[in-house]
Amino acid sequence: MTRIRRVVTSIPRNLGLAYQGLRTWGPRRVAVAAGVALAFGLLLGLATVLIPNPVFTREIPPVWWNYPVWIATSVLSGMLVATYVRQDVGGAASPSLGAGDFGDDDDNTPEARRSSRLGFVGAFLAWFAVGCPVCNKLALLALGYSGAITWFAPVQPFLAVIALVLTAVALVVRLRGQVACVLPTPRKPVAAR
């Protein structure tokens, strides 16, 4: 119970630190965030036929909440990817992104790996959430056509909420880490025998 209380009481502080991290962004990160959000939005929108196209089909029309979830997931994913781009040096953006421009030295920490996984799972769940319930081959194989409509379609809004929460948490963790360095707790000295 105390752990839950600690997590809940730390939310305002973490959001404040994430806001401070976001304020440090330069034009380079903003451009990457916008570009990735647009690319991810197009990919997700075309594959789930939220953007009508001749390549993919959708047997059941989208519901009203598919569009806000699609847009919010795209924006959050774009911002999350932008946190992996190095900051502008001296306030000026580099002319192009080179091989060493992605990732910081601290991206190999357990917290960074965990936030990467959260972001990936969030984007993956968003695809399941906004997609056609009977066009999803996994749901169709597991549940059949009527099962996909009866069992999978009602679960999709919950998948959407989980996807947005996971992606938002990953983004907050990454942004918070840009301004607040989490130091490891020192080990207790071993008593001499």
Automatic annotation (TrEMBL):
Transmembrane segments: 30-51, 63-85, 118-145, 151-173
Superkingdom field: Bacteria
Keywords: Membrane, Transmembrane, Transmembrane helix
Name under which the protein is recorded: Uncharacterized protein
UniProt source species: Dietzia aerolata
Lineage: Bacteria, Bacillati, Actinomycetota, Actinomycetes, Mycobacteriales
